[in-house]
Amino acid sequence: MASSKRSTPREKQRVLVVDDEPRMITFIRMNLELEGFQVVEAHDGLGALEAIRTQLPDLVLLDVMMPRLDGFEVLRMLREFSTVSVIMLTAKGEEDDRVRGLELGADDYVTKPFSPRELISRVRAVLRRTEITTSAPESAVLKIDDRLSIDWNRREVIVAGERLKLRPTEYRLLYHLTENAGWTVPHEQLLAKVWGYEYRDETHYVRLYVNYLREKIEEDPANPRYILTERGVGYRFVDFRRELEAGG
User: Fold this and answer.
1) CATH class of this structure's domain 141-246
2) Do 50 and 132 contact (CB within 8 A), yes or no?
3) What is the CATH topology of the domain spanning 14-130?
4) Contact 107, 101 (CB under 8 A)
5) Among residues 67, 172, 70, which one has the least CA distance to residue 127?
6) Which residues does 55 contact at the CB level (< 8 Å), separation at least 6?
7) Where in the chain is the domain with CATH 1.10.10.10?
């Protein structure tokens, strides 16, 4: 008898497509369904928020340019109640839109016009990051020091007694940093491990998500004590194991 939401390994992953252009939705739906995904759709921002609550998608493809409630506002509102993965659909060449989407909590973006191959590649890459493929830690709760602990089972950090939820990408990034505590992990290695090999040149992803983690775990994010920057190389998590051993 199955006990999880995913009743069988073959159950289709559900993608919510949000766009006010019917032809774009039809194009995306056709290509996603050919690849075995289940597709639900919304034609405006309010419909998207309702569908996220009721349809519980695994991923949202969210267009930026929509009337009344644009994609950025939808993203801001949904991040108040959901950690669902989001890929923004942005206009070609609008770099500000891409950066703004990532800063608001999007997991990735695809610029229009895009090919079916690019779309499917991005969708699969983001969905991979929501599945924890790393081996289970020896202990469910990892104590860094008296202030910070990580609850791997719940995907939460415990900061000064307060529990804060981690998004899937934040979880994976923190996992790889702590697994290599005391060692500098290059940007390229983090990109390959957390995002996938195809993202090896997207160094701004690492910077953004390190900032997200610092906002959650650091007492002073501008002067971090846990996640340290090695300029031009990568990031290093403080060697807490050695400090714990020294402290007895």
Assistant:
1) mainly alpha
2) no
3) Rossmann fold (3.40.50)
4) no
5) 172
6) 14, 16, 40
7) 141-246
pLDDT in tens, 93-115: 667 777 788 888 888 999 888 99
**Residue 49: both structure tokens together:** 């928020």
Model confidence band, residue 243 (pLDDT cutoffs 50, 70, 90):
low
**How far, rounded to the nearest angstrom, does the alpha carbon of residue 69 sit from its chain's CA centroid?**
23
Residue 198 pLDDT > 90: no
Contact at 8 Å (CB) between 238 and 145? no
H-only helix segments in the chain: 22-34, 45-55, 71-78, 95-104, 116-130, 168-179, 187-190, 203-217, 240-246
CA angle 225, 189, 102 (to 5 degrees): 70
Write the DSSP string, 132-169.
--SPPPSSSEEE-SSSEEEETTTTEEEETTEEEEPPHH
The tokens of 236 are what? 């290093």
Q: What is the pTM of this model?
A: 0.67
